[in-house]
């Protein structure tokens, strides 16, 4: 999926919650903007745009956050890297 060109601060801060994963450190979601934010163990933070609330809920409850991310999110939504 293509990257979204936008000012990352335009959406403001998204509160993230720590998760138990060997790949993902924390996740957050803004339902008004359908914007998912993922902080990886590496420290990289990405925003995924136009993410339905259902995907957010499924990610939060997935037994393996990394597997769910790979199957349902990676390369499925426009993405922007946070700096």
Q: Helices, strands, pairings?
A:
Layout lengths: L16 E2 L5 E7 L4 E6 L4 E5 L3 H9 L3 H9 L5 E3 L2
Antiparallel strand pairs: 1-2, 2-3, 3-4, 4-5
Helix pairs in contact: 1-2
Within the largest sheet, what's the order of strands?
1-2-3-4-5
Q: What's the story with the biggest beta sheet?
A: 5 strands, antiparallel
**N-to-C terminal Cα separation, in Å?**
19 Å
- The averaged pLDDT comes out at 90
Secondary-structure-based class equals: alpha+beta
- Give the overall silhouette: globular
Q: Helix fraction?
A: 10-25%
The percentage of residues in β strands lies in 25-35%
Count of extended strands: 5
Series of H and E elements: EEEEHHE
Query: What does the radius of gyration come to?
Result: 12 Å
Write a short abstract of this structure.
The protein has a five-stranded antiparallel beta sheet, with helices on one face.
Description:
- The chain is of the alpha+beta class and 83 residues long.
- The protein is 22% helix and 28% strand.
- It contains 2 helices and 5 strands, in the order ββββααβ.
- Strands 1-2-3-4-5 form a 5-stranded antiparallel sheet, covered by helices on one side.
- The longest helix has 9 residues, at 53-61.
- The relative contact order is 0.26.
- Mean pLDDT is 90; it is low at 1-9.
